[in-house]
């Protein structure tokens, strides 16, 4: 075979062993570690097969039936199938809701929503990032506009009550009256309670604002019907498809159609979201849709309508509750005192551990999670909590009794971090140095890591066996 032909047909392990070795190392990390990052999951073989299919090759700018390129007969069918399943999965009437399945991911989806319905420098309100919101809900600090959603739009955050950790809806209602936002975002990246969409709707209505629900974190739970759905009260709903929904890394936007309201003269005011949102996605912000991802969303949505998926989501929540109770029994404080969903936020202040140290030591023992601010934290740079989620572990088949074991590993890791701190003093660099150089700790960490990995490797990973 000629060299030129070889380039096209060789397996990646033959053509690029250097890269393939890194992919395999990552596979090993996923297999031997405990993945507790709340926004992650292990997607199915079917989704991975769509992602690496021939659909990747095709350009199809525009919507089904209105493409800028030829050859889109089957691509159109795939996108229409995906749209249909998206509406079915969330039990939506196509007369009332439309959907765009082209967003490349969650952040572009959200930017498309604002671009569609809020004029430049128009006003939006979202849950503050340190209180559990997402960057794309308008995040900025006192000195810097961080997210483009705060650069191109004027954002005002709402907050959680620092004592209860629960969203302060009264404060949101008061501030919204003053700020008069064009759009209010109901959505979370780190909040362990169900949202009160009815209350959000009332506040939006008091101000003539759109209610935009970003259900990215909980869209799998919503599809399974085990937590309240945002659709009843929202004008627009976005989601990523790779978190609890367990699909590919991509995004979806749902928008209302039909009558928005009836004015004082008795005339119907119609929604005009469909063309605005479709045009914001393309040509406003994106080019060619990722057809491989759209097919993968379609197949993930098909899975989401099965009884097995519902059982999976129930187990996700049962595992999160078990995790929460287990940690509470070990004496840890859980923000809001519990969880209704797939994640828990652990407040480590009373345990005398910082979020960064906890994240570091858990990473060293092969448990992946992230440090997170907790209500009342003085500095977002030095957060006092960790966020732990159960979607990925549940996909691997862990049940409540396995979560008890996980709690034990976490507790032992956190206790060890206290021992290290006694030697290192308060600075994180010293903590890391002691962890790396002090032989006693090196050994203790090694031992615990071996135990975690021994445990973890018993639970299979979906996908291809070796990569
Ligand atoms: C609530 C929420 N919205 C949007 C996003 C952004 O998604 P992506 O990372 O795919 O851009 C995230 C990601 O974590 C999220 O938690």
Automatic annotation (TrEMBL):
NCBIfam families, sorted: PRK00011.1
Record function comment: Interconversion of serine and glycine.
Keywords associated with the record: One-carbon metabolism, Pyridoxal phosphate, Transferase
Family the entry assigns: Belongs to the SHMT family.
Keyword set includes Hydrolase: no
Domain Serine hydroxymethyltransferase-like: 14-410
Gene3D superfamilies: Aspartate Aminotransferase, domain 1, Type I PLP-dependent aspartate aminotransferase-like (Major domain)
Protein's UniProt keywords contain Transferase: yes
HAMAP family registered for this protein in UniProt: SHMT (MF_00051)
Residues forming coiled coils: none
Biological process, per Gene Ontology: glycine biosynthetic process from serine; tetrahydrofolate interconversion
GO cellular component, one term: mitochondrion
Cofactor: pyridoxal 5'-phosphate
GO molecular function, one term: glycine hydroxymethyltransferase activity
Pathway info: One-carbon metabolism; tetrahydrofolate interconversion
E.C. number: 2.1.2.1
Principal EC category: transferase
Protein name as annotated: Serine hydroxymethyltransferase
PROSITE patterns, A to Z: SHMT (PS00096)
Highest taxon of source: Eukaryota
Modified sites of kind N6-(pyridoxal phosphate)lysine: 243
Catalysis: reaction(s): (6R)-5,10-methylene-5,6,7,8-tetrahydrofolate + glycine + H2O = (6S)-5,6,7,8-tetrahydrofolate + L-serine
